[in-house]
Every structure is written in C-alpha cells, then in structure tokens.
Design a protein that fits this description.
Blueprint lengths: L20 H19 L3 H22 L6 H12 L11 H15 L7 H12 L18 E4 L6 E5 L6 H14 L7 H19 L6 H17 L7 H7 L1 H11 L6 H35 L5 H12 L11 H8 L3 H13 L3 E4 L6 E4 L3
Antiparallel strand pairs: 1-2, 3-4
Helix pairs in contact: 1-11, 2-3, 2-4, 2-9, 2-11, 3-4, 4-5, 4-8, 6-7, 7-8, 7-11, 9-11, 13-14
C-alpha cells in the first residue's frame, strides 16, 4: 500500500469546497453568537469560562492518546502559570503540568508565524521528563515510524510515516506551506476552517516526533483557527474528537491514502463546528450561573453555597442523578436532618426544583 507522501504531487492536497461551505457559514454564525454572549459576561466569568475550555482541551488531548491526568492538577497548573493562585500550588503529575503549559503557550503565541523552533519548543514543554523521548528533537533512527494496533504477532499497520531522514526537509516544507498557504474560499473564517483541517492532517502525516505528535498536531489546528480569525478561539477540538476517537482515526487513516482529501476536510470541519457549539453551551452556562447568583446568592448560607457551587462546577454535563440529602450530607459534612432542612429551604426559595417524591426525591438547580 502507498501513502499520500509517496505519491507524485505530495504535498499538494486536493479537495472540493462546495460541501463544506454551509459548515463554514454556520461556524461563522456560531462564533459570532459566542462572542456576543462572552461580551455579556463579567471579567471574572470570562476568565472562568476560558479556564474551563483550556482545562477541557488539556484533559481531552491527553485522553485521546490514552493518558488520563488529574483534573485538579491541570487546573492548578493553568492557574499557577497565569498567576491566579495567591501562592503556587504544587502539581504532582508532571504530565498535567506539561500539557497545561502547552495550552497556554499555544494561546499566547497564536498570532505569531509558525516556525520550527516554536514546534520544537512546544514538544520540549510537552515531553519534559518523558522517558525514551528526546524533548524538542525530530525522530531519528532507521526503523519506520508506524501507527500500529493489535496483539503482538497480529499487528495491523494503519500508517507508515516518511523515513526519519526525510523529516527535517518535510518539516521545512510544512512550515513554509503553513505561513504562505492560500485557499479556494476567501475570508478569514473560511481560511481558518480549511487551514486548520489541512494543517492537522499534513503535520500528522509527517509525524516528526517520536511521541506527542497527536497533541502537537491538535495544537497546530487550534493555532491555525486562532491566527486566521485574529484572536484565540473559545473552543476545544480535543473534547469533540475524544467523544468519538474511532471516527477520528478512521478519517485520518482514509485521508492518508490519497491526496484527495475532501472527506477529511468535511470531517474536520464538522469537528470544528461541534466544538464551537459545545463552547457556546459552556458560555451560556456561565451566563446562567451569573444570573443565578444575582437572584439567589444573597440568601444562601455557607453550607448551601458549598453544595450549589458543587452542582454548578459540573457545568454543562450536569450533576449526575441530581442533588440528594445523602450527597448534600457528604459535600457539606453535616447531618441528614440539616441536609433535609437546607434542601427544603432551597426548594421553597426557588433555588432548587424538586424531582420525584419519597425516597427517590432529587433536586436540580433552577437555572431558568
């Protein structure tokens, strides 16, 4: 089997744009709506929403690669690096610190031209302390770089990247393409979507590092979006990809067999679209949260406030199963009688909405 880097014409990708035009228009509209809602948030809530989006990206870009890292460690690292903690919090998990720093570096340098030193620096941040990997260096060695799955002796080769000896030349060409590329659809939004899709595929096909290519490649996709639009995007591509990793790897595998990548561009465009819609829900939740505290914040005691914040921290995913007296007791470290009384008060005040009855009674936030 031949891969697209082995075909005449590489890396001149070909794709039809008619099918993706509706996605681009929809993305522009969603993006405008998100900006409008964000402008209605206080500075505190803008910062909180951005933190949640960066947290999601950091966690999910690692989860795609099978690494599951501490949510608390990632958030602590992000806040440490932004100077939001009064005193630095010790982050136990090196991986959490590394991926958080990468997210911040990508956002900080969104408007700068891409260069080889930048990519090596990103990889050095991501892979600091990693074993059997040379942080910030292209892969070397004569063995082929293969994407493989399956048990030993029954491996299935999904993709084989260009030889290590070709990586420096291929990366020079990639960076030149990234900084000078033009696209068949005009306008910053169209360029953002098309450049993000093609840049991610192009980079993943070269696979220049021994490890971390997926995470760096998704960072490049985010940079392409932000740089083309002119400001850091408010979304998490990795969150959407991680929801259906099988579809992501299948689309990538199919695209790496040909220079005709229309299906890949459509797939990745839909990922960008879904990521923006998901971000809109998160931003709207932040606005509802602000309005909620405007209505009810003054009447909550310390226990109630602690429990309510726990519910709100679950964000758009909700508080699984609703609040119960047992959960309230565990969160606030109070008695069952006090928990029952507090929950009933919150119901009467309109803070909570009761669902069910008797032993199956649960409570949900009134965010209407």
């Amino acid at each position: 089997m031949m891969y697209h880097w082995q075909l005449p014409g590489w890396p001149d990708f070909v794709y039809e744009v008619e099918e993706i035009q509706p996605l681009i228009l929809a993305f522009a509209q969603e993006m405008g709506e998100v900006r409008g809602v964000v402008q209605g948030l206080s500075d505190h809530l803008k910062q909180e929403t951005l933190l949640q989006l960066m947290l999601a990206e950091a966690l999910k870009t690692s989860a795609i690669e099978g690494e599951y890292i501490s949510r608390e460690d990632v958030m602590s690292s992000i806040k440490n690096n932004l100077g939001l903690n009064e005193t630095l919090i010790h982050v136990k998990d090196r991986r959490a610190d590394s991926v958080a720093q990468l997210m911040l570096e990508v956002r900080k340098s969104f408007d700068q031209p891409l260069n080889l030193n930048m990519l090596r620096a990103w990889h050095k941040i991501l892979m600091t302390g990693a074993r059997k990997v040379k942080p910030g260096q292209w892969r070397t060695g004569a063995d082929p770089m293969q994407i493989v799955s399956g048990a030993y002796g029954r491996e299935v080769i999904h993709y084989e990247a260009p030889p290590s000896s070709e990586v420096p030349k291929e990366m020079e060409k990639f960076v030149q393409w990234y900084n000078k590329a033009t696209f068949p659809l005009k306008g910053e939004v169209a360029e953002a979507v098309l450049k993000s899709a093609v840049a991610h595929l192009y980079f993943e096909s070269i696979h220049p590092f021994e490890d971390g290519n997926g995470r760096i490649g998704r960072a490049i996709a985010e940079k392409a979006l932000s740089q083309s639009i002119g400001y850091p995007v408010m979304l998490s591509l990795s969150k959407i990809i991680e929801h259906n990793k099988t579809a992501y790897y299948a689309a990538l595998k199919e695209a790496q067999r040909s220079l005709k990548i229309t299906e890949w561009v459509n797939y990745f465009g839909s990922v960008i679209m879904e990521a923006q819609r998901d971000a809109k829900v998160m931003v709207q939740h932040a606005l509802k949260k602000a309005r909620f505290f405007d209505r009810f914040g003054h009447q909550l005691n310390e226990r109630q406030l602690k429990a309510i914040n726990k519910m709100l921290d679950k964000g758009t995913d909700g508080f699984e199963g609703g609040m119960t007296a047992r959960k309230y007791t565990a969160i606030t470290k109070t008695s069952k009688a006090t928990a029952t009384r507090d929950l009933n008060e919150l119901r009467l005040q309109g803070v909570l909405v009761q669902k069910g009855a008797g032993r199956s009674v649960t409570y949900e936030l009134n965010l209407g």
